[in-house]
Amino acid sequence: MNPDAVGWTRRPLHTANLRGWGRAKRWEYWGIVTPEHIVGIVVSSLDYAGVHGLYVLDRATGRETSTDAVVTFARGTALPVRSGAGEVRARGGGLEIGIAQSADGSTIHATGPGVRLDVEVPLPPGHESLGVVVPWSDTRFQYTVKDIGRPVHGTLSLHGRTYEVGGPEAFAALDHGRGKWPYSTTWNWAAGSGPGRAIQLGGRWTDGTGSTENALFVDGRLHKIGEELRWSYDRSNWLTPWHIGGERVDITFRPFHEKTARTNLGVVANETHQCFGHFSGWALTDDDTRTDLDGLAGWAEEARNRW
């Protein structure tokens, strides 16, 4: 890791020219929230495998449609070295994902059994995102870009019916990750958005590094929250309210649906509980203005990895 890279930015500046094999983790995750559906798209390379997925939740019925693919040695997976530039590609197990990125925004095409997604995610003028380099050591580190509250429009075809994606209550969020990780890690992540406001919160995996991935966005402007936050939730009942707090943040998250993913291959294992729901509470801007976060929609999760 270049020590001069450590810090945070308001727009993607870093080049993730990772070298070596075996500990590098690369991924692009897009989450899309509409009043009718929640969509998750992931393309990832863990060096020894590509792990890709397309997920759709019907919010009215609770029905989940999910396709996951594991591709040995991440064959056919393309993940650019810079966020917002180049093409992301993955194919396998009946799943095909293509994401074209440019200075104007991103175009996402994804297909799986019963699902086709075709959307544009424009990049508004002056829109800011949170880029952070998290250093565990000289050889273990992560560069993440969390880009929350992006507008989105297009179509979602689900089991023979086509839905329009767009409008003021629809948003997209990007998690761009490139790094070399320790073997065992646990993280929390929460992201929510609504017209003119968005929140990005992380925890546990950054503790003690001097870096955080916490930010408030107001009209596309980033207000960095540097403190480590307190997360409280019931691991025996994920659908009870979560609380996330600190000096500049006091948030309650009320889930309405839990998505669970588990794999256990002995040496390699994952357990993720991603809950979708609504936020209430407040966060402070850089000038200590209290911003109301009531009604923001999004997710909060816990992920435990041995990888």
Give the topology.
Blueprint: E1 7-9, E2 24-33, E3 37-45, E4 49-58, E5 64-72, E6 86-92, E7 95-102, E8 105-112, E9 115-122, E10 130-135, E11 141-150, E12 153-158, E13 161-165, E14 171-180, E15 184-194, E16 197-203, E17 214-218, E18 221-225, E19 230-232, E20 242-245, E21 249-264, E22 269-284, E23 290-292, E24 297-306
Antiparallel strand pairs: 1-10, 2-3, 2-14, 3-4, 4-5, 6-7, 7-8, 8-9, 9-12, 10-11, 11-14, 12-13, 15-16, 15-24, 16-17, 17-18, 19-20, 20-21, 21-22, 22-23, 22-24
Report on the architecture of this protein.
With 307 residues, the chain is mainly beta. It is 0% helix and 62% strand. The strands form 3 sheets. Strands 15, 16, 17, 18, 19, 20, 21, 22, 23 and 24 form a 10-stranded antiparallel β-sheet that branches. It has an 8-stranded antiparallel β-sheet with strand order 1-10-11-14-2-3-4-5, with no helix packed on it. A hairpin with a 5-residue loop joins β10 and β11.
> What's the pLDDT, averaged over the residues?
96
The ordered H/E elements are: EEEEEEEEEEEEEEEEEEEEEEEE
Query: What is the β-strand count?
Result: 24
- Rg from C-alpha positions? 18 Å
Summarize the main sheet.
Answer: 10 strands, antiparallel
Outline, from the CA principal axes? globular
Short description, anyone?
This protein has 307 residues and is an all-beta fold.
